[in-house]
Design brief:
Blueprint: E1 3-4, H1 7-27, E2 33-39, H2 43-59, E3 62-68, H3 74-85, E4 92-95, H4 105-109, H5 123-131, H6 140-151, E5 160-164, H7 171-180, E6 184-188, H8 195-199, E7 204-207, E8 225-228, E9 232-233, E10 239-240, H9 245-248, E11 254-255, H10 262-282
Parallel strand pairs: 1-11, 2-3, 2-4, 5-6, 5-7, 7-8, 8-11
Antiparallel strand pairs: 9-10
Helix pairs in contact: 1-10, 2-10, 6-7, 6-10
Length: 283
């Protein structure tokens, strides 16, 4: 039976760290603040907003919401972003995506100051991930994967790591972060030939395939660590990951559950990015 890498344990440790950082900032008269920009009333956006707002409140971070109608013009949205860029009270910004189709998402994303980009929305932040420079912040989900590895003492140095998925949201940033941890990284995707033979060679597998249960028993071997980023709804209407947990868990050494794994850490990572943005501004 595999060790379950529970997100709640990582989150509890991360939250204590954040509270200490917030207390130090407040002693200097700085109140770290997240600005949320939401266009329309998308149910998934509202759900994430509630979670982020609650986590901010718990950790002593302020939250300012700017809600715009779904038919907002590009000019008006860009004006709002410019105002937020120049508002010293707001340290980090979360803009919900995807945006309505009449808006040019690429232009809008890159209008945000990378210094306030706490979820790697801008090209500047992504360049920071690939160059290792402190430009903006990495995406919260792959950062949550790294927090889990760190918390459970999983050393990546010299290990073979496989990332399944090549998106800019998880796959490619996760690969760069693993390289920074001195792992030897292979990225698999839909065109990979005989993927199970590749993944069985790995010590660590991060799965961000975007398909429920796609990684089964034939993909793994004993001794591996599996981090499942996927969030899907199965035929029974229950949350599940990209890994077939029932098939894989008895084989590997350690695995994150879904729910209760990576997703539960992501919101705290977002809040810590806001706090770090406030620290950088103070310096």
């Amino acid at each position: 039976m595999a060790k379950q890498l529970l997100g709640k344990e990582v989150t509890a440790s991360l939250n204590e760290r954040i509270k200490a950082q917030v207390a130090l900032l407040q002693e200097k008269g700085i109140n770290p603040t997240l600005g949320i920009i939401r266009v329309g009333e998308n149910p998934s956006d509202l759900s994430y907003e509630r979670g982020a707002t609650k986590r901010c409140e718990t950790l002593g971070v302020a939250c300012e919401k700017i809600v715009l109608p779904e038919n907002v013009s590009q000019e008006e949205l860009l004006k709002v972003i410019d105002e937020v860029n120049h508002n010293d009270r707001i340290h980090g910004v979360l803009l919900f995506r995807p945006l309505p189709r009449h808006l040019d998402q690429s232009v809008i994303e890159n209008a945000l100051d990378p210094a306030k980009d706490v979820d790697c929305m801008t090209d500047g932040s992504m360049s920071g991930v690939f160059t290792g420079k402190k430009i903006g912040f990495p995406p919260c989900t792959p950062q949550a994967c790294m927090e889990i590895l760190d918390h459970y003492g999983i050393d990546c140095t010299g290990k073979k790591a496989v990332v399944i998925g090549r998106s800019l949201v998880v796959g490619k940033p996760a690969a760069m972060m693993l390289i920074k941890k001195n792992a030897t990284v292979t990225v698999c995707h839909t065109r990979t030939v005989d993927m199970p033979s590749v993944t069985r060679e790995a010590d660590i597998i991060i799965v961000a395939a975007g398909r429920a249960g796609v990684v089964g028993a034939e993909y793994v071997r004993p001794g591996q660590v599996v981090i499942d980023v996927g969030i899907n709804m199965n035929e029974e209407g229950k949350l599940c990951g990209d890994v077939d947990f029932a098939a894989v868990e008895p084989i590997v050494d350690a695995i994150t559950p879904v729910p209760g794994g990576v997703g539960s850490v992501t919101t705290s990572v977002l809040v810590e990015h806001v706090v770090e943005a406030a620290q950088r501004q103070a310096q």
